[in-house]
Amino acid sequence: MIKMRTLAAAAVAAASLALGAAATPASATTATADCSSWNDNNTTGVHCADYTGATSFRAVATCNNGVRVYGPWQPVGKGVWSYAYCTSVGSSLMLGGYQTA
Q: Is position 17 within any domain?
């Protein structure tokens, strides 16, 4: 019986914490991300005109052979693209994306 009461009290406490966390207002800070991407069967490219908190970006390609390849780092807001080529590892593109720094 004691074990059941302890578990019930723990469940009530956890529910109270969860409700309290849900009622917390969101941060007033908003992030800006203005990036465009392009893909074909072998290549992914990315361009970032703006990205809050980042000064550079690069394309990241996950290739069908499991290898991940990276484009060169480029500065945010300078009008340049970064490209990652799966053909450089003898494969084709599975998934394209990017990283920021």
A: no
C-alpha 32/C-alpha 89 separation (Å) is 34
Q: Is the pLDDT of residue 63 over 60?
A: yes
Domain range for 96 is 33-100
86 token code pair:
């799966």
**DSSP-assigned letter for residue 98:** E
Query: Tell me, what's the pLDDT at 32?
Result: 81
**Residue 54 and residue 47: Cα distance in Å, rounded?**
13
Enumerate residues 6+ apart whose C-beta is below 8 A from 93: 39, 40, 41, 42, 43, 44, 61, 62, 63, 64, 86
The CATH number given to whatever domain includes residue 95 is: 2.60.40
What's the whole-model pTM score?
Answer: 0.70
Q: Is 83 within the bounds of a domain?
A: yes
Is residue 23 scored above 70 in pLDDT?
Answer: no
Q: Is residue 43 part of a domain?
A: yes
